[in-house]
UniProtKB/TrEMBL annotation:
Superkingdom of the source species: Bacteria
InterPro entries referenced in this protein's UniProt entry, alphabetically: Rossmann-like_a/b/a_fold, UspA
Name the record gives this protein: Nucleotide-binding universal stress protein, UspA family
Record CDD domains: USP-like
Domain annotation UspA: ranges: 8-126
Family the UniProt entry places it in: Belongs to the universal stress protein A family.
Organism the protein comes from: Kriegella aquimaris
Length: 285
């Protein structure tokens, strides 16, 4: 279950000439450097001498001017252009900026970023707090729900923790309340519900421990590992937990597309996207 040495070989970051351009480019180049990846900077819009000189000058001010960076200029619909570029350029990781909602401590992702998160063929990193200087990633929270792609998400969380030198990794197992199969009406039913909760927690932790045991020891030995079972709605519960513990990064596996049902029912990931608690890495196989 061990991934290739460099799962993120080519990273794409779409940039706009906004007041946050410098800090976004500094963060994107820093991430590409840590992952040992080539970085493609894509601007959907007209190329001018002024714009070209501006981005070239900015790249000389980054922490890693030796980084392999390619600048692309394309015209068209931003969503379609980025979506197609991810395919044609064999992108492994798409970095998108998320926007703070007014002055409240709540965040939302723009409509283009939301659509790309659902449709793009690669993993996606949503940044809500890019920084001009590096802020260490100390605590990573990863989804541990019982799903086919969860082992990959957990493995990638450990990989990122290793690369970024994170000190702690918490695996959150979200358990639906309906799995209890007990209606609490009195002390007796409450005791029964608590026993059932402990059994479910033990089941989930055993499953997660098996996933961890199959990873190379070099990926796990220097990280403090915690397992946390939470009873609640998938997506909403882990987002709230990541916010409460002030995690630096939340890692989730990409939702499985189910056609019409996707448009009727809210996906687990939609709860996260509607109110981002921290930077979010969505791992897509």
């Amino acid at each position: 279950m061990y991934t290739k040495v460099k799962p993120f070989k080519t990273i794409l970051f779409g940039f706009a000439f906004s007041p946050s351009l410098k800090v976004n480019v500094l963060e994107a180049t820093r991430i590409a450097y840590f992952f040992g990846a080539k970085l493609i900077l894509l601007h959907v819009g007209e190329k001018t001498i002024e714009k070209s000189n501006g981005i070239e000058t900015l790249l000389t001010e980054t922490e890693h001017p030796e980084l392999s960076v390619e600048i692309q200029w394309k015209n068209g619909n931003p969503f379609q252009v980025i979506l197609e570029t991810c395919k044609t350029s064999n992108i492994d990781l798409l970095i998108l900026g998320a926007v703070q909602h007014e002055n409240l401590f709540r965040f939302y992702v723009g409509s283009i970023a939301r659509k790309l998160t659902r449709k793009v063929c690669c993993s996606v990193l949503l940044l809500i707090k890019p920084s001009a200087v590096r802020i260490p990633c100390k605590h990573i929270v990863v989804n541990g729900v019982d799903a086919p792609d969860t082992p990959l998400a957990i493995e990638m969380a450990f990989y990122v923790a290793k690369i970024l030198g994170s000190q702690q990794l918490t695996i959150v197992e979200e358990i639906l309340q309906k799995e209890l199969h007990v209606t609490v009406e009195d002390d007796r039913s409450l005791k029964k519900a608590n026993i059932m909760k402990e059994r479910l927690k033990h089941r989930e932790e055993s499953r997660v421990r098996k996933i961890i045991s199959e990873l190379p020891e070099v990926m796990t030995k220097d990280v403090v590992i915690k397992m946390q079972s939470i009873f609640g709605k998938h997506g909403y519960s882990i987002g709230h937990y990541a916010e409460v513990v002030r995690a630096d990064l939340l890692v989730m596996n990409a939702p499985i597309k189910t056609g019409l049902l996707d448009r009727i029912f809210t996906h687990d990931i939609e709860y996260i996207l509607s109110d981002l608690p921290t930077d979010l890495l969505i791992v897509r196989n």
